[in-house]
Amino acid sequence: MYLKSLELQGFKSFTDKTLVTFGHDITAIVGPNGSGKSNISDAIRWVMGEQNSRSLRGQRMEDVIFGGTLKRAQVGFAEATLLFDNRDGSLQYDSQELMITRRYYRSGESEYYINKQSVRLRDIHELLMDTGLGREGYSNISQGRIDEILSVKSTDRRQIFEEAAGISKYRHRKEDTERRLAATQDNLLRVCDKISELELQVEPLREQAAKAKKFLAFRDELKGVEVALWLQTLEKLSATARKAEEDYHSAVFILQQEHDALDKLYALSETLTQDLRDRDVQIEQIRERIFETDARSGDIGSNIAVLQSNSNHALANIERVKRELSEQDSRSGGISVQISDLEARISEIEAQSQALDSLLCEAENEGKSLADSAEGMTKQYFDLRARQESQREKLSSKAAELTALTQSLFQSAERAERVTLDLSMAQERQAQALQQLTHARQLLENAREDIVA
Predict the structure, then answer these.
(1) Phi and psi (nearest 5°) for 411?
(2) Which of 23, 73, 205, 220 is deepest in the core (most CB within 10 A)?
(3) Which of 88-92, 134-138, 153-157 has the lowest mean pLDDT?
(4) Is the pLDDT of residue 276 over 90?
(5) Are 74 and 68 in contact, with CB atoms under 8 Å apart?
(6) Taking 60 as the threshold, does the pLDDT of residue 134 lie above it?
(7) Rg of the chain taking only CA atoms, in angstroms
(8) If we measure between CA atoms, which residue out of 123, 129, 124, 122 comes closest to residue 163?
(9) How far apart are CA 134 and CA 123, in angstroms?
(10) What's the rounded Cα separation, in Å, for the pair 398 and 451?
(11) What residues contact 95, with CB distance under 8 A and at least 6 apart?
């Protein structure tokens, strides 16, 4: 078995991915101070599971990640991979090549891989035990490590010799077994203490079990009495609920009848209202006809006054003409013609006056008849108004009766709700009692099991 290559990325000064290949003829890596020679050995120790940052020449484990420069930004993780030739089977792993990888992030998370398969740090330690490649192995000795080994105590120096002798694996197994034995011994001591404490509680528990038995017997008896009482209460509530339901149905029937009567009254009221509206329209039409007749009568009176004035004027003219005739008998025949014309005009005016008088009489008669008809319609209108008021009073009384029936119905519904609520509460109490009985039986069973234990 020998080391074939080391691949670095982001580890200390190796920012970019760097592959270092080790052949059989390489004996040393040389370079000036600060060129990163020691970083290669630190990377090898780090991959093999080194957890002490001071051993890697740093203050924190985060120092192994490239921190950046003026020209290069810092990276987020450090990764190193060791490739071993395992054709001789020195490492107990079923592969001719063994690749060990460790990756560390700035968040503090670490990842370990063997042949690109995720493993634990402990798996890497157990794999490298007795091969000289462990953290305390002699195959990787850093600068100043030899002086440190020679100056430490013999017990500390013993780890290197055990690693060289190939017994470090068994020492670790022995220490692990001793830790497990010590933990088992502590558990046994705790179990013994618990047994001693429980033995002290046996007698008080026995007395408590006897009291629990008496309590369960009395409680069963109490449950029976309570169940009987609840059943009796439920029967009473059921009877009350049935009576309330009967009252409710009766009230609903009466309410329906009253609703029907109220609907009939509403229909009658609508009919009367429509009749009143029709009569109002007829009265309004009669009033319009009376107004038109009055207007026509006024026009005829005006015409009669005009004709009367014309007649008086014509008579005055006749008288004047007669006086002139008596005074001047010698006038020409033209005056006689004028007198004849005036007399014919007077006759025509008198005929028109008589015709207008007859029209006025007819208008007055028609006005009287219309007035008489209007008085009858008014009387009928007031009668309909009186009937409407009477129907409204009946409607108000029916509405009051309906309100009383509705209130009685609501009271019956409230009583039914109260009865239903009492019934549901009684059922809840019964369910709680059954639940408590089940819980008590479970407690009794647990107590019996504790007594048997």
Answers:
(1) -65, -40
(2) 205
(3) 134-138
(4) no
(5) yes
(6) no
(7) 66
(8) 129
(9) 12
(10) 78
(11) 86, 115
Q: Under 8 Å CB-to-CB from 166, ≥6 apart: which residues?
A: 130
Distance, in Å, from the CA atom of 362 to the CA atom of 356, rounded to the nearest integer, reads 10
φ, ψ for residue 115 (rounded to 5)? 55, 45
Q: What are the DSSP calls for 15-62, one per residue?
A: -S-EEEE--TT-------TTSSHHHHHHHHHHHTT---TGGGT-SSGG
Mean pLDDT of 230-258: 85
CA dihedral over 275, 276, 278, 279, signed as positive or negative: positive
pLDDT confidence band for 402 (50 / 70 / 90): low
DSSP state of 76: S
Task: State pLDDT tens for residues 51-110.
Answer: 877 777 888 888 888 888 888 888 989 999 999 888 877 777 788 888 999 999 998 898
Q: Is the pLDDT of residue 398 over 60?
A: yes
d(CA 376, CA 74): 116
Q: Which residues contact 408 (CB under 8 A, 6 or more apart)?
A: 251
| Residue 392 CA, distance from chain mean position | 51
Look at residues 377, 362, 315, 380 and name the one whose alpha carbon lies nearest to residue 343. 315
How many other C-beta atoms are found inside a 10 Å radius of the C-beta of residue 255? 15
DSSP letters for 312-340: HHHHHHHHHHHHHHHH-TT--THHHHHHH
- Tokens of residue 263, six digits: 């609907």
pLDDT (mean) for 266-273 = 82
- Cα 204 from chain centroid (whole Å): 54
In angstroms, the CA 372 to CA 379 distance is: 11
Q: How far does CA 32 lie from the centroid of its chain?
A: 73
Q: At 156, which amino acid appears? A: D
The pTM for the full model equals 0.37
> Using an 8 Å Cβ cutoff, are 40 and 20 in contact?
yes
Which of 261-265, 350-354, 441-445, 448-452 shows the lowest per-residue confidence on average (mean pLDDT)?
A: 350-354
Cα dihedral sign for 249, 254, 257, 263? Answer: negative
Residue with tokens 């209460």: 233
- Copy the structure tokens of residue 282: 């007829």
Name residue 102's amino acid. Answer: R
Residue 104 phi/psi, 5-degree rounding, is: -130, 135
Place of tokens 């760097």: 18
HSE, CB side, 13 Å, CA atoms: give it for residue 386. Answer: 6
Phi, psi of 108 (to 5 degrees): 100, 0
Residues contacting 436, CB < 8 A, separation 6+ = 223
For 250, the token pair is: 């009766």
Q: Which is it for strands 77-85 and 97-105: parallel, antiparallel or unpaired?
A: antiparallel
Collapsing DSSP states into helix, strand and coil, what is residue 204?
Answer: helix
